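Dear colleague,

Thank you for sharing your sequence with our group. We've completed the structure prediction you requested, and as agreed, I am returning the results in plain text so they can be pasted directly into your records. Please verify that the sequence below matches your submission; if there's any discrepancy, let me know and we will rerun it promptly.
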Amino acid sequence: MHAYMPVRRTIRWRTTPPVVVGDVVLAAPLDSTALLAFDLAEGRVLWSLSDHQEAELFGSRQSYDHLVGAQGDTIYLGGPELAALRCVGGLRAPSSWELAWRIPTPSALGSRTWLANGALFVPDGAGRLREFDARTGEERRVFASDATLGLLAQDTALFAVGGGTVERLER
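Please find the predicted structure tokens below.
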């Protein structure tokens, strides 16, 4: 009798959709040990940032498990901390990496951070949605909201989904 045991995959990243910035696609596949960048037109790998490179860059064994998004030449990562990672030379062909800022994540375990309109929005697990400036990491404001399932950011309002409701939060 023969038994087949599938290879056990180590889950590194949370499930997040790919992020498209210009002609670059950023992806963090669940079981990949690296953050990957692809050419949008050809699909070829432009670069990768391994978990070992990440540990060297951040000066710790801290692993980020959430590709929050990207704007311009900056990638935003989440996990026990939020971090902004600047790609010196641009997202297409970074010559080096620069940590722009990092802060402890003010969120409940498993909550999701959203990037929209130059801000990061983080549910804190205590019925509040915290807004941080994406350039500096500084907290801008706090909304009374249980936005744990989804967020749509518009110029004048946020639409937050959580607890079976949709809330409009004025900005």
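Summary note from our side: The chain has a mean pLDDT of 86.

Kind regards,
the structure core
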